[in-house]
Amino acid sequence: MKINFKEILLIPNLISLFRLFLFIPFYYLLNNYFNDSIYRTAIIILIFVAFISDLLDGFVARKTNSISELGKIIDPLADKVLVALIVIRLFLLNEIPLFYFIIVITRDLLILIGGILISSKVRKVLPSNMLGKFTVFLIGIFILVTISALDRTQFIYKSILYISSLLCFASLLTYCIRAIKQIKTDDRANS
Asked: What pTM, to 2 d.p., does this model score?
């Protein structure tokens, strides 16, 4: 896998980098989470900005035919950094359960480490898939529900909590299956 760092100037990659650097305002806002409802509102707005930028970078990459290896790294990395930052901070604030924290962080770490190992083996980056993107979307919905201080005994809160937890496992399993298939394909091509 060869990464051309000139690819950083491609519009979709700049959008992904913008999303990656949203960790700075997220960090500040999450540190002031309980101070004022304005901070909660700002976090919710920032989550929507991150979501729109995630949709936009992929759309622009496809429309302008500027899909790049660097973009396949930056896009999911930005998602993982933001999700990890928010989930860790909400866990430390006792806003999300321990099991959810463990599931989300473990999933992202395993996918990140697996992605590095697979990329070094097959010399290309496995792109995100729809189940992975939907899982991150549902984790985002759960974060929104948590930040908006919805009653945690309500059906909607519990449903999103458990469905997004199950999707974490399903998306990790799907990623593993895709990685194994890619390694087998690569091994056959090299023999």
From this structure: 0.85
